């Protein structure tokens, strides 16, 4: 897609933080919230062992909600998203494999995506096996996928790698919920959180400022627990394996 661009997510997040600070917001890092309890006139939060009272709370934890609000955590499945990267490649090699420097994403159901970053590193990502760490099997799988698509990368050292959880809803669409008086959440970006998280962040800002639910730019729905929730992760793993098989046989996504 020649019109497409690429965004550095961490740099973008830092830019959003700078904008928030410029508007007078206070940002408190390393402030782990372990519990949230609706109370009269707001919400009580346990933060690093201390009690904090807030009038409005936005739960923006997506695939990392866990026990903080169990009903939310039980309404999606988590899958692993993993990426690996080389050191900056020689210019001649970069021009042979991706001369235009465009980001690439496939039309398969279980896709690989890759690009050349501004410093010349080749980056490839896809579904992993472990939600929070880059395991050896996933690293090997990504290297094999890179070489299959670009044989010139055989023998290149892969020196960077990371993995994280991604929240997936049953219909691949995000959710916006009012969990209690003064408590809002949006989640389920299904791997498209940089764009969708920004868009729904604006909607959440309108919500906590008192905008009528019917006037919000995204529908507010009740939380719905996944059917057969205890088996959700096994089901997700089986589904990924099934779609990988379909992709390998050439079935359309």
At a glance:
By secondary structure, the chain is an alpha+beta fold. Helix content is 28%, strand content 26%.
Named CATH architecture of the domain at 78-168? 2-Layer Sandwich
Q: What structural class do the secondary elements suggest?
A: alpha+beta
Major sheet summary line: 5 strands, antiparallel
Helix percentage range: 25-40%
The CATH superfamily of the domain at 78-168 bears the name D-Amino Acid Oxidase, subunit A, domain 2
Strand order in the largest sheet: 6-7-8-5-9
Number of strands: 11
Order of helices and strands: HEEEEHEHEEEHEEEHH
Multimer state: single chain
Stated plainly, the CATH topology of the domain at 78-168 is called D-Amino Acid Oxidase, Chain A, domain 2
In what range is the share of β-strand residues?
25-35%
Q: Uncertain runs with pLDDT below 50, 5 residues or more?
A: none
Termini distance? 18 Å
Q: Which whole number gives the mean pLDDT?
A: 89
